[in-house]
Fold:
Amino acid sequence: MQVELSVPEIDLLLPQPPLSGSLLRKALVGSSERFISGALSTFGSAKNPDLIFILGDTKTNSGHELSCG
Structure:
């Protein structure tokens, strides 16, 4: 599974187990193997990701956004 994260690098205000570290994007990319065996998480560089997470008001050009609100 390949996951592309379109997430700004922001500080985690509090520990968020099972994530480790103090930066959100780095913690998500570094934890992908823990969540799904064999998963590859990247930031903005995947050619054809299976899944894209867009958090908050992050801008994207994927054309596949789903608005929740």
Q: What stands out?
A: The chain is about 15% helix and 20% strand. Residues 2-54 form one domain. The beta strands are 2-6, 40-43, 51-54.
